[in-house]
Each structure stands twice: as structure tokens, then as C-alpha cells.
Amino acid sequence: MSSFAIGLILLSVISGDALIISGGDLAHIDLETGTVTPSVGVLHTYPNDVIIHNGSAYVVNSGDDSATLQKFELGTWTLTELGIGTGWNCWASLPLADGNLAVSATLNNSVTLVNPTTMQALSSIEGIGPNPEWMATTENLLYIACGGWGAGESVVVADISAGSVTDTLTAGTNCQSLALDENNHLFATCSGVYGNDEGSVVVIDLATGSTVAELTVGGFPAFSVAANGILYISDPWGAGVYSIDMSTQTVLHDSSDPFCSGGNGMAVDENGYLWISDSMNNEVRVYDTTENLFQTYAVTSPAAIAVSGSLLGIYGGGVETGISLSVAPNPAVNLITVTGTSFGEAIQIYDITGRIAAATTVATKGKTTMDVTGMTAGIYTVVSGSTSARFVITAR
Fold this sequence. Notes:
Distance between the termini: 32 Å
CATH topology of the largest domain: Methylamine Dehydrogenase, Chain H
CATH superfamily of the largest domain: YVTN repeat-like/Quinoprotein amine dehydrogenase
Oligomer: single chain
Structural class: mainly beta
Number of helices: 1
Strand content: over 45%
Shape: globular
């Protein structure tokens, strides 16, 4: 295989950016090199939410009036700031179909529409409450979770073009975040009363506005993301991350049997990999589409997280990503087993600089075992034919 072809494979395997609120800093992970930069920018009071939109990162600072919304250009980290309201306690932002951003204001019971290019507030949608938090959108409608910090159970529906509220749906106590499936169902994560271990997810049929299921998960869940037909719900104050099969509307993991620890932040990349912040362990973990642990990064006190691109390349990039190849165990110490190989094919292992660290030839179709004892701890890529996979060697 030529070095040019190898470069294409390596580039397709790891490409993109991850941004994590890390205390008062914005941490960055370069998915091409695996490099973690603890701070590419300083945040303001109570940073609560981060998203990536059109080549920029946007951070919502809940406790700051003059720099409520911070915009960081990816790569250059040039900063632009926008103040929104006075004491509004803005909570989260969401990209809209028209290219603007919606920013929820919990203490002003409103949503502000912002032009992300010019960083100017355009207008506000009033009468959204009590205490709007995370949001979801379909075409021209905006759905806003309004849990009233324990006293509310509403999902407010707003017409974005008209700038007005059109409906209010009933969810459960302390509704905080929302996710949509492909069947016109809205999944509302409801924390319940703090300390009562009564967290639930209420499923609402948007065609009728009626509740079709209330799924008990326990604990005090707050934030949710959907990946590969599964709803992941974070309870950073309790057991960790819970999960629900969105098609069958059944609970897979609840507070008695969490999927994993952490959940201080969650995101899904463009190939469906799940990213989870775990502040107790000072790490960000990545799980593949079959829920296997794929990668771990050391990040101090990670919270909200946003990802663009993917560890398996930019979605739709037209370069084969080789997801049929896999490595176990991952992380590895002494031996790895590479599956998805063909008889007679060469296998090379490349370090993060692109140099060959080990090589062999497939002697048995399907699986090949390789000794990595002499290799230093770090991130590696195994290549076989036109496919590739990434793995980590830990310190011995």
C-alpha cells in the first residue's frame, strides 16, 4: 500500500473536533491527532451548554449578562461575545433550520433568537415557561422543556417564524430535556422531585399531543441524547447514564442498572458514536454503535460536550472508513486480536505519527493475533486492505 493511500485511510479514521466545558475553560480534543488541549478559551460564570455549528463553538454562560453567549472559531479560537438580558440565566442553545440559534432563558421565561454569524440578538419569543431549559426542533416548530425547577411539567411549543407560543403539552414533573424519534414522538426527560428517585421519560405523540408512555428510570435524570435508536439519559447526581429503546419504548438501563457512570455531558458524533463526560473520573469516554468502549480521553472535570466530525471520519466524506475491522481488547496491554481480516492480507499497525509500529500477514481468515508488548502506550491504527480500526495501548 502506498503512503498516500495509507494517509487517506488514517485521515478517514480520525477527523473532527470535540469541545468540552472543563471548569472555567473550554477544552479541545483534536480527533485527528488525539491531542487534548486543556484550554482553547476561558469561559465566564456558570458555563452550562456548548454546541458546534457551522465551524464555530458556542458556549452559554448561565451566570453572565455581558457574555451570555461566547463564539469560538474552530482552529483559530477567535472569540466573539454577546450579552443576553439581565439576570436571565440563559440555559442552552440550539441550531434552527433557518441557520439562527435559539437560546433559552430560564429566569425570563423566553427564548432569544440569535444570528450566529453577526452575533446579534434578533428577537425573543415570550411566554415560555416555567423556566425553559433544553430544546428540540422540527422544521418551524420549537419544543422547549419547562420543568419549573421542580414545580412544572410542561413542554411549550412555539412557532419560530411567528415568534409566538402555539401549544403547551403535559409531560412529567421537572421536565428538563427533549429528544425526537422518526415516528413523530417526543421523549421528555423528567427529573421528578430531587431526592425522591422518581426520574422518568414521558413519550408524547406529537400528532395528537397525548402521552403514549411514561417510562420510569429512577434517580434524577436531566439531559438526554438519541443515538442509533437508543435514548441515553444522564443522571450526573446519581448512578450515571440510563437508556431506553426508542422503537419499543422499553427501559434498557435504569438507576439500579446504569449503562455507565458519568453523564455530566453527552453528545453523538456524525457516525453515531456516543460521547460521555465523567467528571468523577476526569475522563471523556467514547462508545461505538454497539455500545463497546472505543476511546477514553483524560479531561479535568468534564461537563457539557459537543462533537463535530467523528473518530471514524467526517460523515459522507466518500472515503471508506473500514468499520468492519475491529480490535480487542481495547484498550490493550500485551496482545490484540484483529477481526474482519481476509486470508493473505497484510496488516500494519501505525502510530499516531503515521509510522509502522508492527506488521504481519493474515494466516487465518477472520482473526489475527498480534503481540504489542514492545510498543509504547498511546493511540494506534491497524490497517488491513482498505479497512482500518483504532485502538489504544495502556501503560504497563
